[in-house]
Amino acid sequence: MKFNTKLLHGYSGKKDCYGATQVPIYQNSSFSYDMAEDLEKVFEGKSFGYLYSRISNPTVQDIEIRLASLENGIGAIFCSSGMAAVSMALMNILQSGDHLICGSGLFGGTYSLLQDLEAFGITTSYLQKGTEEEFLSLVTDRTRAVFIETIENPKLKVYDIQLMAKWVHKQGIPLIVDNTLISPYLFCPIEEGADIVVHSTTKHLNGSGTAIGGVVIDSGNFTWDEKCYPWVKYFGKFGKFSYLAKLRKGLFKDIGVCNAPMNAYLTSVGIETLGLRMERECENALALARFLDENDAVYDVNYPGLLNNSFYEVAKKQFGGKFGTMLTFRVGSKEKAFRIINRLKLVFNQANLGDVRTLIIHPESTIYQDCTEEEKRRMGVYEDLIRVSVGIEDFEDIVLDFSQALA
Ligand SMILES: *Cc1c(COP(=O)(O)O)cnc(C)c1O
């Protein structure tokens, strides 16, 4: 099936007994069995069944199967939020004393998580330039994973995933990619060599801002070496499913970061229009970037789809001629930035992205409020920087709103 067909028809394939085409919402905390023997078998893993919704649930499983299929993974675990997914993806394979290498322009919550992990003996080094030479200089004998975002925000730095995967695999470690900003419609990191993909499903996959959620998807391709990843002793029997089995039986269940069946359902409905929304949003984003680039009130319009952007070539190659839905620009001062945001009538001033509505935010005073000046500079956050996540409105209305606000 092609992508848009798969969005509608590519899920678990179980036919509902009443002919419902949307997955039913199984709003149950647990599931009963007639015979004690049956429940014993399910607990032992000898027969398949649902036990308790902290571990698995039919509605949640449906979105897991659909998301794994969209990203070309062998399985997925749907989590309570994107941050839960990022935490689980990393903590599942790390132990005290281990080291990570990450991009320097990460999502604010992920950066904050990496600082939290220091209390558990896990340290992180950040790529500034992103060259192989720099990468190799950061690798230690305790480096256990590399974590990057397909497009870092608000820097909008685009990584060449195929290249990164090559460097990372030579060191015997996995590449974990946060693909939230681009979505599997534009790009599947697993096809280019990424081992694990995470998403905040809150963003593009949901699309309408109706539910917080996240997902961890495994390619099943990485060979976990027992010397570096000692848990393989216990989970190796699951073969290529060892990473997912460890997560579901371990931290996912034990920390309890399951998501609600209702949120799984809302995400399922959301992803059906992912292709249509991304087409339209990318088109609008490119047009808005070009409009802003011509406007004298703004400078440093940052969008990978502009010909003068340093990531134009890699974005074009990787995302098939589309460039995502986010752009940033600068206006000279925080005061001006606030004035522009306050004058917009249609565009919402809101801390979200990948929504059907065009959203705007002043990152420095909001998401990055707690960062030091040095951290902000490293992450490309300036006091006059404005970030826009472009929606599906008619472009004429978007451009009219920006014109009057900038005037
Ligand atoms: C929003 C976001 C997250 C966190 O997701 P939540 O659902 O808000 O917890 C992680 N990574 C990226 C790139 C994001 O944009």
Give the strand content: 5-15%
Shape: globular
Structural class by helix and strand composition? alpha/beta
Low-confidence stretches: none
| Helical amount | 25-40%
Structure summary, number of beta strands: 12
Write down the secondary-structure element order. Answer: HHHEHEHEHEHEHEEHHHHHEHEHEEHEH
Description:
This protein is an alpha/beta fold and 407 residues long. It is 38% helix and 14% strand. The protein has 17 helices and twelve strands. It has helices at 3-9, 36-44, 58-70, 82-91, 108-117, 132-138, 161-170, 183-186, 232-235, 242-249, 251-256, 261-271, 274-293, 312-318, 334-343, 373-378, 395-406; strands at 75-79, 99-103, 123-127, 143-149, 175-178, 196-200, 214-218, 299-302, 326-330, 348-349, 359-361, 385-389. A seven-stranded mixed β-sheet has the order 1-7-6-5-4-2-3, with helices on both faces. The chain has a five-stranded mixed β-sheet with strand order 8-9-12-11-10. The longest helix has 20 residues, at 274-293. The N and C termini lie far apart (48 Å). The structure holds pyridoxal-5'-phosphate. Pyridoxal-5'-phosphate binds at residues 81-83, 86, 107, 109-110, 149, 178, 180-181, 200, 202-203, 212, 214, 353. The site of pyridoxal-5'-phosphate (PLP) has 17 residues, from helix 4 and helix 5.
